[in-house]
Write a structure and sequence with these properties.
With 395 residues, the protein is an alpha/beta fold. The chain has two domains: 327 residues, no CATH class; 63 residues, no CATH class. Helix 3 packs across helix 4 and helix 4 runs antiparallel to helix 5. The protein is globular and about 60 Å long.
């Protein structure tokens, strides 16, 4: 019988082949240059990645980092050779991640002290100052045992930024990680995030993606003890020409664990494109787990496209529950008619519907000032096309 003490041994002896998640390797030779035919790359516009997926140098330094951490949280840059890089157990599963691992000369380590409860959020802000050269980064966030904290990572400005993020929750830790991609329109951001969740630990991970030319974010989580819980929430808004891609993977590697994935996105403008790929793997050892994943997309204009692909891979039937759902639809004219029939102008009615669509996730972020900023950001995104929609509806 499998016990918690030999889970790692079981996983090593009985690996699972997944077409969505190739076997990892630190050797760049094991990751050929993608051509767009591979399952994990078929939705990504490779020609717009500025060669990051090929051999473009990743030695740029056109960015600045600002840190504002609360008491009980430390943040320090450590040479890669002296860092705790790899603490999450992550091994690169694609060429970009492997190249980034190889190119990053330092690791930015953020640590929440053991038994510490931090009420105020801590911020890490990266501002890009140019797209002439691509840059590589590595961030390690560690929540020590029985700690509680919120870490917010914000991205602004112009950059070609490739990054690996490791998130480690020790036993009993509670961690809220929020990443906000509010890049300028010329930016490219390729980020791989992996979380390892300890016994009875709780991770809430929120991704907000608004800006950038191309943003591709891959987020995964696994477990090293029973009772671990993961919530993966996301909000994204794509404008004309933008490509926003999120790839989620909950790997249930321990029994009696939980995962919940909910991402919502809106699209507007010609050639706005969003991609959401969700996958949950329930291994043989993961008895008594509970999981659900959902993605909803709201298409506001013609010319926009949303791809949404939920997946479940189940190796044991001894589970509490598992399911997935995906919806993609246009703006509901019946909702608009209902609101207008009660005296609400058409442009205000559209705003109300879109804000209502996002509100379920926005309220879960847990950082009031960030929630308020996001409401304003959604309003700004809408303001650029409301007049055109209203004019078209009245024509």
């Amino acid at each position: 019988m499998t016990t918690l003490d030999n889970i790692a041994e079981v996983l090593e002896l009985d690996p699972v082949e997944s077409h969505l998640h190739p076997e990892g390797s630190f050797d760049l030779a094991d990751h050929p240059v993608p051509r767009g035919l591979e399952e994990i790359w078929r939705f990504t516009p490779l020609k717009r990645l500025r060669g990051v997926h090929d051999d473009a140098p990743l030695d740029g330094d056109s960015y600045k980092v600002e840190v504002d951490v609360a008491d009980g949280v430390t943040a320090v840059s450590v040479p890669a050779a002296d860092s705790a890089r790899g603490l999450s157990g992550y091994v690169p599963v694609d060429r970009v991640s492997a190249r980034t691992w190889e190119a990053a000369t330092s690791v930015f380590e953020v640590t929440v002290a053991k038994d510490t409860v931090v009420e105020q959020p801590s911020y890490i802000r990266l501002n890009g100052t140019g797209t002439d050269k691509a840059a590589a980064g590595h961030l390690l966030i560690r929540a020590a045992a029985f700690s509680k904290a919120t870490i917010v990572v914000e991205y602004t400005g112009s950059a070609v930024w490739s990054e690996n993020i490791e998130i480690v929750l020790e036993d009993g830790a509670q961690l809220n990680v929020v990443t906000v991609q509010d890049w300028a329109d010329d930016s490219v951001h390729l980020v791989t995030q992996h979380a390892r969740v300890g016994r009875d630990a709780e991770l809430k991970h929120v991704t907000v993606t608004l800006g950038g030319d191309v943003v591709r974010a891959s987020t995964s989580a696994d477990y090293v003890g029973s009772g671990g819980s993961v919530d993966l929430f996301g909000v994204y808004f794509a404008d004309a020409g933008q490509h926003i891609e999120h790839r989620l993977f909950a790997d249930h590697t321990a029994p009696k664990t939980r995962s919940n994935v909910l991402y919502k996105g809106a699209l507007q403008g010609q050639d706005a494109h969003t991609v959401w790929i969700g996958n949950v793997l329930i291994r043989k050892v993961a008895e008594g787990i509970e999981t659900f994943e959902q993605n909803d997309n709201l298409v506001l204009t013609d010319g926009a496209k949303a791809d949404s692909v939920p997946n479940l891979e189940i190796e044991t039937g001894e589970i509490e529950g598992a399911g997935h759902a995906s919806t993609t639809g246009r703006f509901d004219d019946q909702h608009l008619f209902y609101l207008q029939s009660r005296g609400i102008p058409a442009d205000e009615a559209r705003r109300l519907v879109v804000h209502g669509f996002f509100n379920d996730i926005i309220r879960r972020i847990g950082v009031p000032e960030l929630q308020e900023r996001l409401v304003v950001a959604v309003e700004d995104e809408l303001s650029g096309h409301i007049d055109k929609l209203t004019a078209g509806a009245s024509a």
